Amino acid sequence: MRARDLSVRYGTSEAVTGVSIDVYSKRVLAIIGPSGCGKSTFLRALNRMNDMVDGVRVTGEVLLDGHDIYAPEVDPVVIRRLVGMVFQRSNPFPKSIFENVAFGLRIAGIGDRRTIAPMVERALRQAALWDEVKDRLDESGLSLSSGQQQRLCIARALAVEPNVLLMDEPATALDPIATARIEDLVSELRTELTIVMVTHNMQQAARVSQRTAFFHRGRLVEVADTSAIFTRPKEQETEDYLTGRFG
Asked: What is the pTM assigned to this prediction?
């Protein structure tokens, strides 16, 4: 996946300006920067989630396997199946654990439970949740702990077998133990798919990502291997942010 000269405008306000970046296959790209710098807006532009916001205007290109996801003939529903998303706060549906994971599969037209069941199990295993819920699949997803609910939402995104997974500060609302489990999960999942993760936690970015992008005031200031960003940033803005001079 790659963005080319991508800009996002809400009315008269430009939230993201001229971003060009490559997202490498089966790697974790962390996006860091101060609040309001355009991180989440950029992330949502990668699967056309901003389309749901009134008055938004997106220019430039986002290429997925060489195809522009903003081309007129492209169905955004298909894009969101190929490029899944996990939000900052877990948002399980008021349905059973099983039906939470099966939701996207049913939307895709797969209705038979016998067909869906192994796909649900696979997604729950990928999300490191199967052993905890395999005997509770008919219980409400809302009965799970906050950390389990977030992994349930990850399983829901994984069930439709996306190529890319977007994660918008997925551990912000979790305690340290649940956060560690999410980080371990991210490290495991990158062997199977590409991950782009927005995080306000620089230590988390250093732990789980292979590349890191620093955003400031809607611009991509620099992107490089994570070790280089944190030890040898090229831009003064990046160094100032990492050393706490602003942000």
From this structure: 0.94
